[in-house]
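Example record for the data management plan.
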Amino acid sequence: MFKGSMVALVTPMHDDGSIDKKALEDLVEWHIESKTDAIIVAGTTGESATLNHDEQSDLIARVVKQVAKRIPVIAGTGTNATQTTLTLSENAKRAGADACLIVTPYYNKPTQNGLYQHYKTIAEKIALPVILYNVPGRTSCDMLPETVERLSKIKNIIGIKEATGKVERTKEILSRCDKTFAVYSGDDATALDLMQQGARGVISVTANIAPLKMHEMCQAALNGNRMLAEKINAELMLLHTRLFLESNPIPAKWALHAMGKISLGIRLPLLPLDSKYHHEVKEAMQNAGVK
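Corresponding structural encoding:
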């Protein structure tokens, strides 16, 4: 259903932390022109943790309306409370989103069966495709392959964003689940390796900065053109790694600011990129051919 380079879109903000709606519109158009395959709104990279519920729902509705079905829009609606996740997912459905990306509940530390019941409850009540999102480095909650296998049998749970960066983990999920269940990389640095194992694409931070190249790399990988995919990926590798010199989306927002696309606005407790990393991120941008 969804494949290729799917950008985990930053939420552009003014210096006071309010959402910059004009910059958001411009970013969306730039991604469509750059052949980005789908847009994820209000995910981790979009600072969902500091968006209030009204802002999150408005952000999703704005992007859905602007995109107007030109490419898929996937809404980040995961929280650490099942009922809140249901409410946000219902709002995304009303706004016209094509799917929901739902992160594992953070802080609570649910059991594997608790995770199963959380997602099962949501999937049975929301008439939208659901993509699971496992990022234990952020959430302190690791959804194990056997739980993913159980969840994959629920009709509208269509895939998982697997962000451990572990190729063996992805291989196990692919071997356990039906071919119709999609696996997406949530780690740019290992995305090509995962696609070569059978993943259908990447939900990408790097695509914020180099959307066309990420699209071209994913297309080459999915079409079996290994040599071209590896060539493009090599050009992007410094960017893959250096966009995590500080917590995401700090470096990505700084890079977009350096490109003249957004202001430096970011919400506390995050701060703009420390100046000691400016040269390293700039070097990675240049290495990727980004101006």
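Summary line stored alongside the record: Residues 226-242 form the longest helix (17 residues).
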